[in-house]
Specification:
By secondary structure, the protein is mainly alpha-helical. Helix content is 59%, strand content 6%. It has 14 helices and eight strands. The protein has a two-stranded antiparallel sheet. Strand 7 and strand 8 form a beta hairpin. The longest helix is centred in the first third of the chain and has 29 residues. 31% of the residues are buried.
Length: 346
């Protein structure tokens, strides 16, 4: 079974997460070197406003791999390492890469839309130049300054997916002196970004791009949940969904074991059913209880009564598993959870 603690403890990164970090670091080092030769990666690969003369369609993809500063890339890649390796193991490598790119491109699209609203709202479409601190800058050159760089949009998409997959996982966030649940961490970040975008739009941070990564990530997650068979057609898998048991199966019916590319892990319900089948086999192989006679009292348990009780227990477990499959583990009552636990422990 997938264990969050085991994924947090391992230093063996899955392939997409590792390669994303390597590519971003190489791009940053290349950018530092290129500046010495008069080459500006922000200008070439950063995302320009779509009405600017320097805008190119490929920039919607390349801007995710260009960062403005060492601090910028450090925090983004730290988040990719911390949360991306977990979500890659949950989603599978191909799906995780697709999700990452969609969130990044979606963040860029929303940023473009917000910039266009700003362009119209400020009436820039009616001017030919802009006065910047006493310098008259042609409108074409001014619009080319509207450049967005960084993987923050995709990173915020990863944070959202983590919060939706492990909503009750407790996290320590500096400087908060107590642990908070992942769902509140994600919601808090979204609120902060929204307030920052509305209250301080000129701080040089693409807050709406961050929200764009979350929004596109949310849309993709909800689509996958509503159409659980579609991702199997694109990425492989059996398509045998089993609802929301655990956190990660709210996403997909199956997930890859990225530490072994030649095999896939079975679903949780399949593993539980296999365990119960093995448990039943072991019970059948045991000697059935014999009649017991005690002085002063009479106690016996014949074969028919034992079989009847066993059948009733099996039917109850099957009913509980069906309820888990339909409504998730949290839909069980305390008594049903106890029965499931007791049966699995035998």
């Amino acid at each position: 079974m997938f264990s969050l603690n085991s994924q947090l403890s391992t230093m063996n990164m899955p392939p997409v997460t590792k390669n994303l970090i390597i590519i971003n670091l190489l791009m940053y080092m290349a950018k530092v070197v290129a500046v010495r030769y008069g080459i500006d990666f922000d200008d070439l690969l950063g995302l320009h406003f779509f009405l600017a003369s320097d805008f190119k369609l490929y920039q919607l993809f390349t801007y995710m791999f260009v960062h403005g500063s060492l601090e910028h890339i450090f925090f983004n890649m730290f988040a990719v390492w911390m949360f991306g390796r977990i979500m890659e193991r949950v989603m599978g490598s191909q799906r995780f890469l697709f999700y990452y790119i969609v969130c990044g491109v979606g963040a860029g699209l929303l940023q473009e839309g917000v910039q266009y609203i700003q362009y119209i709202y400020q009436g820039l479409n009616t001017y030919e130049s802009v006065n910047l601190d006493g310098y008259i800058v042609p409108m074409e050159a001014y619009l080319n300054r509207w450049t967005t760089v960084g993987a923050s949009g995709a990173v915020y998409g990863i944070l959202l997916s983590f919060g939706m997959t492990f909503p009750n996982e407790r996290m320590f966030i500096i400087p908060i002196p107590f642990p908070i649940k992942a769902k509140w961490f994600v919601i808090g970040y979204a609120i902060i970004e929204l307030l920052s975008a509305l209250g301080n739009p000129g701080d040089g941070v693409a807050h709406m791009a961050h929200l764009g990564g979350m929004l596109f990530g949310l849309a993709l997650i909800m689509y996958w949940r509503k159409h659980p068979g579609d991702h199997d057609r694109f990425y492989g898998g059996s398509g045998n969904g089993f609802g929301g048991f655990g956190g990660y199966d709210n996403y997909f019916t199956r997930y890859e074991d990225v530490t072994d590319g030649d095999r896939r892990r079975d679903s949780i319900i399949t593993r539980i059913k296999r365990k119960f089948a093995q448990w039943r086999t072991n019970l059948a192989q045991r000697r059935k209880p014999k009649m017991e006679v005690h002085k002063g009292s009479f106690k016996h348990s014949d074969d028919m009564e034992w079989n009847r009780q066993q059948k009733a227990r099996d039917e109850e477990i099957d009913r509980i598993l069906a309820k888990v499959k339909q409504g998730g583990y949290d839909s069980l009552s305390k008594e049903e959870k106890r029965k499931l636990f007791d049966a699995s422990a035998r």
